[in-house]
Structures are given as structure tokens and as C-alpha cells.
Amino acid sequence: MYMLVALWWSVGFLALMGVNFALLWSLIWWLRRDGSRRRSPLSRNLLRNPGDSLRPEIEDLNQDFLGLACLLVIVPLAVYSIWISQIKFGAARITSASIVWLGVVTLGAVAFLSVKLFRVLKRRRTLYLALDGEMAIGQELNELMRKGYAVYHDFPAERFNIDHVVVAPGDVFAIETKARPKPITGNAKADAEVTYNGRTLRFPGWESSDFLDQATRQATWLSRWLSSAIGEVVQVKPVLALPGWYINRTKRGPVQVMSGRDANSLVHPMAVRLSSKRHAFR
Known about the structure:
282 residues; Trna Endonuclease, Chain: A, domain 1; five-stranded mixed beta sheet; 52% helix; elongated
């Protein structure tokens, strides 16, 4: 009798948790279904803001964080509740083996959820930093619109996005933004300096050319796309923006590297005017 009561108590507890999750899933499904039966009153595509492509992933990570955090609290309580219920109704006795078994199961579940939660938090922190960097560069580039330049953010391409595109008199720029955290070693100047020798970037403690290669590939794609769209060759200059860093340029290279606050240096004051076809793109 006591064993049946303990079993039904445990089953009821788990069933209640399942019902709660089912209700939450049903609510989300209904909202999505209801949204699919309605349409926005806006009939044209709006210009994108800096970092728009990052926001959906950040929202998904926020939901993952909330779910994992809840499970991290619920799992130990659920195991403890089931165990105590069985003891209370005489379905189980306190033995060393039962304590060890429940401890291993609980610690294993908590460890698994903790690792998942750590990865989610780490990825979310990286994306928030990237979003802040794109917004910072976007705000600086928006100042160029006062001079008549066209600025586009989060420009959609083939399976990737170009962070910023600037169409200026005589020039088109594809700008890739990389927000990197700074180390703290006690030397503020050295911690904030990156050296560009025309081929690689040397940050404090590591060196790479991956960011430069990415900026070059995106500029090449945009050049081909624009040339195909307007029927004449359009050269696109690759730019890499490192917000918050001091750039020590020891040699010129094919990619222009900027810190973000020097957006006016992108455009030469004596640049020739764009042709009429290129103005149509603007």
C-alpha cells in the first residue's frame, strides 16, 4: 500500500512538471500560429539596424539560459522530493547504496546542466560584445550621412551578412566589425594596442590574419554583386573595424583597419563623383 502511494506521489509530481511544460509549449505554439494568420501593415522592407542578425540568436540564448537555470534548480528538488516521499510512505529505506546512487544521479544531472549553462552564457557574452561593437561602429558611420554618404547596416549576402556598407563619392566600403575583449595586465597602453603590419594583426598575446581575410572576402562578394546589378565594374574597399582598440599601423595593406572613431578617414576629400548608375544604388 505504502509503495503504491509513494509511486503515485512520484508519478504525480513528474506529471505536474510535464503538464507545466506542455502548457508553456502550447502557449508558444498558439502565439506563433496566431501570428502566421496575421500580417504586418508595413508593405516594404525596412533598413536594418547594426547587429540585427545577432539579435535572434541572443534571444534564443536567453530562452536557453532561462530553461537551463530552471532545470538546474528543479532537478535536485525533484530527486529529493521523490526520495523523501518513498521513505515517508515506507517504499524505501535509507541505505548507503541509495544515498550514493541518488547522489551520483543528481550530481551527474547538475554537472551536465552546468556545462550547458556555461556554454550558453559564454556564447551570449560573446554575442552581446559583438552587438555592442556593431552598434558603436554603426553610430560612428551614421555621422557620414550628414555629408551625403549612404550607410547600410547588417547588409544581407549569401549565407552571411556584411556588418556595414558605406557608399561614398567615388568609393564603396565593406566594413567588418570585430569587437574583441581587452586583457588586463596592468599596462593599459599595451593592453589596448593592436599592431597592423599590412598582412596580420597582432593583439596582446596572439596574432592572426583571419579578420583581414574575412573583410577581403566580403568586399570581393559585394564588388561582384554591385557590378552585376548596375552593369559596370564597382571596386569595393575592404575595411576592418576594431572598436575601442588603438591601431598601430607599421605598414599599409589591402585592408584598411580603423578603430571606429576615425570614420571620416574612410573617404578622401578629393574623391571623384560616382556615376549616375551608382547613385541609383544609393
